[in-house]
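Subject: sequence -> C-alpha cells, single chain

Hey, anyone have a minute? Need the predicted structure for the following. Not urgent.
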Amino acid sequence: EELQAYIARARANNIIDQQVRALDVGRTNVDVGVVHRNRLDRPGDRSVAEHHQVSEVYHIIEGTATLVTGPDLVDARARPATNTAVRMLNGPGSDAASIRNGVEHHLKPGDVIVIPAGTGHWFTKIDDHITYLMIRLDPDKIVPLK
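Reply:
Had a minute. Here:
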C-alpha cells in the first residue's frame, strides 16, 4: 500500500526518484526507493549516472526500457556536493555523455538488475514508462537515514 501511494504520487506530480526508507542495518545502510520514469525516445544530454560508493538494485514493477551499463564513461564530470541526489539519494558520483562499449539490458516487469558502485548506467529508451523498486546499498553510510 505504501509503495503504491509513492507510485501514485510520482505519476501525479512527475516525481522521478523518491526515497521511502534509509535504514542502518549494521555494517551498511540499505535505502529503499521508488522510481517512475516516463517515455524516453532517446537519452538526454549527459544523462549517464555513476555513483562512487553506492550500489543499486532495480526490481522492475511495470513498463519496459533499455538500460545500458558499463564502467567506461565518456566525458565524465563529478556531480557537485550540493546536488540534491548526491546529498539525499546516492552520494558522490559523476554524470557523463555516454558509455563506451556498454552492455544493453532490455528490462521488463519482474526483472532485477544489480548496478555495482562505479558502474555507469543510462536509460537509452523507455517504451511508455517504467516503474521500479530501487534498493541502494550504502556501505559508507553517506545517505541520511529516513
